[in-house]
Every structure is written in structure tokens, then in C-alpha cells.
Amino acid sequence: MVGQEEKTAVIVGAGPAGSLLALLLAKQDWKVDVFESKHWSDGSWAPGQPDGWNVMLGARAAYCLEHVGLKDDVWSEGVFCSGRTVVAGGGLKPKYQPYGYELLAIPQPKLASVLINSGMHKYPERISYHFGWGLKSLDPDESVAEFSPAGEPLGLAGRDNIVVTADLVVGADGLHSKTRAELERNIFSFKTTLKVVPAGRHIKLRVPVDVVGEQVDEKGNVHGPSMLVVARNAKLMWGVPNRDGTMGLTIQGIRGSTAADVSLEMQESFPELSDFFGADGDASARLAVSPERFQGTVTATSYNYKQTVLLGDAAHSLLNVTHLGAGLALEDCLVLDRLLQSSLENQDHSIVECIAIALSNFSNERVPEMVAAAQLCTDVSRTNMFQVELQRAILRVVTRFLPRIQHWQKAANTQVVSVQQLVKWRSREILIVRIALVFAFVLLLLRAIRLVRLALRVVLPLANFLPN
């Protein structure tokens, strides 16, 4: 059987998707080389740069992590959030908005480190990790990848480039994927689109409980940790709690390039945190040099070419408005692993042919899902908060009479449901809301007509007593 022959894979990127796929392939006796441009030390990304982006995980991510026995390990490193607390303007009281379910907040590097450490200890002979190496070039026709020291001039410290030939090449290197760029450069028919929007500067800050408490109203505290959203002076701040007592803060609208400038902006817009952002403070200095983070959408008609495939954000990055992105990236790995196993059981084809068939099937299965996910995120991003609150209020009333109807976003984060199904459920909810609004309008109109008739009954007889 083809599956009994040794199979080799190269994975570009050791983020959550790349690290999970490495575990799944190693479990099937693949020989895997994982290359990551960032450096690694003591189980943490990039020593001296702890400000990792936070992700929110729901049922889809839990299901994927359970496949490699790491769900409990990851869950123990995060914090459950049951809603978000919104502060708008200077004098308005915080408003707690419950999700109706719980999401796990965890820094993306911490999630990746759990997966990587598992690979290091469980499959030391099957998985080789190469940190500090970035993809330089890729020949997708021959499945040959060349890597060079990341951030170093060619040949520095005597380190020559690494050239690897493999049966499978996986690009899991994020929004600005070099693997995707190489496919577009080498393959005329391979086209993708990338649209990015600024998402602010990010910093991790240890904030005492009493300071956080001032940002969260009593109802929010009763429900436990929540995502914090503060909007003031055309600036936005998102805060996501971490298990180590810090908050991952993403601040949009900060323009200062020096610690003093940042300190002044923070005092004007976010005075609650001004004590932590002094003119000569470490937090101000870090935020001043923190690079602008970007959210973006990546779309493609296909995720594969021959023996090369894209996963996660490299293939289908989404706007962060539905908390689906991380779960879908991890789900990519399970789908690809399943299709590879199924294809490699075919004794009539070579390894190369089996892999190519599996990758083609992967694109056929995942592209429609990701098109639906992108459309869902776009539609949600265009919905203002008043519309969201109105829809929720109407649905709460409707579900009292039709309990089988549940909110699509709750289903998205508490069940493993097809995104295409979620789109249908959201459309159904919008239809229900519109029907409810029309029904309410009709009732009000009938009420108004009745009041007019009553008024006429009173006024018309009185008109007979008026002088001509």
C-alpha cells in the first residue's frame, strides 16, 4: 500500500495551523520539517518581544485540539470570556454585552507553543523544527523549497541556505504568506487577492484587578472576565485578558513615535491607564515602536498546486468579527489529514499522485466554506451596534415561542457547524427579524387607526353643536 512508504513534508510557518498539521502528519508516520522565521527560546516566541496577538477559541477549535489530545492543555493556558464590556465616550457608563456562551482568550504564540512543545516531546524523530529560517524561494513544480536565515544577510555566521525537497509543501505562514507569493510568482494561473486594513498597535500590559474593575460594570464582573472595548477621541482600544494577569491591548489611532508622544495620547484618550504610560515608561516606549498590526482578507479560487497547499490565514484570512478564524485554520488541518489518509490508501497511484489528488479535493471542499466565511464576516462588519442589539432583542422574544431557533453566532461558537449552514441560519434570522418588524408596524398601524376612529367618534358629534 502507498501509505506504508515514507512520506516527507515541509511546513512553512509554526503558528497554530502549521504546528497542528505537523502533529497530525507525524502521527501518520510522516517525516516533517517545520520552518519558522521567528526565533524560539524556552517555549516562547521571540525573546524580549512578548506582545503576542490574542485569539478567541470556541467549539470548533476545541474539537480540533481534542484530536491530538491537547484541548485541556490549551484550555488551561487561556481565560474564558462570556461577553464584552463597551465604554464609549468620557462620561458614559460601561455596558456589558453577554455573548450567551463562552470563548477562550489566549495569546496566539501561547497556543502555538503548546502545539510545538507537544511535537518536540512526542515526535522528536518525526518532526524537526527550524526556528529563525524564512522561506526564500519555492519551486512548486518540483516541490523544492529554499530557506535562508531570517533577518540576517545571506551567509551571516557561516549559515548557508537550506534547500529541501519533499512530497508535500505546506504554506501556513500567515496573512503575508511568502508561500502564497511564490505560487503566484511561479504559476500564472494561480491568483489570489489580499485586502488589508490597519488594526492598531498591540502591547501586553500587566494591569491590576482594581484598574480593570473600573472599566467593567458590576454586571460584567458578575459574569467574569470579558473583552474590553473603549472608544474615545477617534481612538479605539481592545483589551483581552490573559491567564498570567496581563491584558493584551490593541490600540487603534495612536500616532506617536516616541514614548513622550504616546504617553500624552494615552492620557488624553485612556486616562484610566495613564499611570502605566508615563513619558519615560517602558509601556510607552514599547507602544511607540510597536508595529502597526493588520487585519486582512485573502481570497483564492484554489488553495493548491500539485504538491503545494496553503492553510489558515495564508489561504483564507478573515476579518476578526466572528471569532471563526482560528477555529477554521485548525479545522483545515483535520480536513487535509483526513483527505491525505484517504487518498494514500489507493494502491493504483504513486505518492505524488495521491498527494496531488488529496490537495485538489482539499480545495474543492474548503473553498466554498471559506467563501461563505468571508461573506459572513463582511456582512457582520457592516452591521452597526444598534442593528445587532435590535436583532438580539427581537430574537429573544421569538425564541420564547420557537425555542428550536438559536442565534447563528452562538451556534458558530458552541457547535461544529458548516459555515455555509451558518450563513443560511443568519439569513433566516434576518428574515424573522424583518417579519417581526413588519408585524409590529402593522400592529402599530392598526392601533393608530383605532385611535383615530375613537377620536372621530368623539369629535364628530361635538361638531353638531358648533355654530354654522
From TrEMBL:
Keywords: Membrane, Monooxygenase, Oxidoreductase, Transmembrane, Transmembrane helix
Molecular function (Gene Ontology), one example: monooxygenase activity
Domain (FAD-binding): residue spans on this chain: 8-345
Membrane-spanning ranges: 431-449
Alphabetical list of Pfam families matching this protein: FAD_binding_3
Alphabetical list of SUPFAM superfamilies matching this protein: FAD/NAD(P)-binding domain
Lineage top rank: taxon: Eukaryota
InterPro entries found in the cross-reference section: FAD-bd, FAD/NAD-bd_sf
Name of the featured protein: FAD-binding domain-containing protein
Source taxonomy: Eukaryota, Viridiplantae, Streptophyta, Embryophyta, Bryophyta
